[in-house]
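Q: Could you fold this chain for me?
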Amino acid sequence: MKISILGAGAFGTALGGILAGNGYDIDYYDSTLEKENLAENLVSATYIILCVPSKVAPYLLPHIRQDKPLIVATKGILTDDYFTEFADWMVLSGPGFASDIKEKKHTLLTVTDERVKKLFAAPYMEFDETRDKRGVLMCGALKNVYALLAGYKHLKPGSPENSLYLKMVAEEMKKLLEINGAKPETVELACGVGDLKLTCAPQSRNYMFGYKLSSNADYLPECTVEGLSAIKRIKRGEIKVPDNLSILEEILEITKGK
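A: Sure. Below is the predicted structure, expressed as structure tokens.
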């Protein structure tokens, strides 16, 4: 079976390593290739895995074959509107750093289809499951947004302040999911509180961007910060935002003009 992975970065190659270990034929797509040739290149793929940065995904999706099962492993996409033309798509998300997966450390991820669990079966991989694709996507984007403020406030992992912050954020995320037609309980899965805890820590780019922003309001990141991309989409109205979300309001204020 051939599986094409769109995105040859750290996470894409980590996922590819699991699949290759399970005996699948892996073909990577690099963003330097012409998008116009992509559909032709994917003819022989049984599955397609989307693992490019979230800001790239909307421009790439129109060139992907819609008659193939699509696994969305890109974290940072706020809405499932991008996938309405795909007959068969599923999501893989959660607290998994590429380096940990490559080192075969225990990793818990959330999937929205049993087929994903079978493809990525490995002794060090564990999965929880939901059919709430919209909720899993939103969690994967929102946790990056909230990690910015954790860094901005210099919250230390494991501290009482950080634990209280994570609890408050989880409640806000539930409100955001519910008003946008997703299931609030999805926040309790690995893709929600699990990934949130992992991202609200110094090893996260989003956390470190907020940390540096706290001492330099003009600071701009040198690499992709998914939380900042998600904030821009929130400001453009890509999702509904209820009133009185005090934490999100603070984040939008400190990133004004970014």
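A (continued): The two ends are 44 Å apart (CA to CA).
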